[in-house]
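Exercise 7. Predict the joint structure of the components listed below.
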Amino acid sequence: MKFTVGPVEMYEETLKLRGEQIPYFRTSEFGEMMFRTDGRLKELIGCEKEGQIVYLTASGTGAMESVVINCFDERDKVLVVNGGSFGARFSSLCGIHRINHEEIKVPFEKDLEENMLTAYENAGYTALLVNINETSLGKLYDINLLSQFCKRNNMYLIVDAIGSLFMDEIDMKKTGIDGLIFSSQKALSLAPGMSYVALSKKLLEERVYDIETKCMYLDFKDHIKNFERGQTPFTPAVGICYELSNMVDRLYEKGIEKIVNEKRELASGFRRKVKDYGFAIPEYRLSNALTPVLFKDHAYDVYVELKDRYNLIVNPSGGEYANRMLRIGHMGNLKPSDYEELLEKMIGLYKEYDR
Ligand SMILES: *Cc1c(COP(=O)(O)O)cnc(C)c1O
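Solution:
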């Protein structure tokens, strides 16, 4: 069983679809399926009707890169929230593609607060890039704070919600998000291989349609043109398109509020228990997608033993937190009783080391 941040435990319906033949896709039936999925998906994420979702066969990083090359050019001065490895990735991407950028560094134990933004007010920035859940830490930045900052500074707001969408509340219209990035292998609980970028009308008109993208595969204009028929320019991960369609129907029936509430309860239930057992969790604002659990030591050993002895997979942490923090995921097909087992085994192993 996986308590990971992607790929995650899949649902039976998805597994069943994965066992079937992959249909041919240059058909009107495929196009119709994509249109239906697109309409429902737009409602779920609060994307305006005049907006567009681009369907990419790429991992999340491919979608992050596609946003940098399709939405920005030498006119822009971009602010990147860097509070962990995914923030650093946005920054590297801007560097590689020569987009003028500056980083707001957020220290480990801190939340992103109003005063960290003060220096960047009225300073000519045109966009803000943020991984709303910095998944390397499970830290959830305050979308309302960032939304207001972008509005009063007339900046585009680009949100990598790969580790957050369908786990935390996100709505493009409500918070003025111009670009929203998400992926198949996270909360959608599908196979890895596709990522999606939802774009606001404003960003489309003011940037995307205007920029000459120096990449054929990731050119949004080509994707948008092809989607007039419900198609993609190149062969997509067709199987995942079917998985997506099925999942979006199920999410749509449930409704976004219920989806997020269930996950919030799953996460908070686990957090109460893990604290009862004497573990600490960081003080910063947490995403419902995962819980970082702090260890005095031996976190990595516990991770290895959980995997090797019990086939229970959690996420270790990188760098200086390798031995001090495990990340326990809440995305995918997991229920409260799965966590009982995990906790019991985790405590047992920890005691073996903590003698
Ligand atoms: C998982 C994740 C990504 C995507 O990484 P890939 O390995 O390229 O799919 C990007 N950003 C965040 C915040 C993530 O959680």
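Discussion. The first helix runs from residue 12 to 18.
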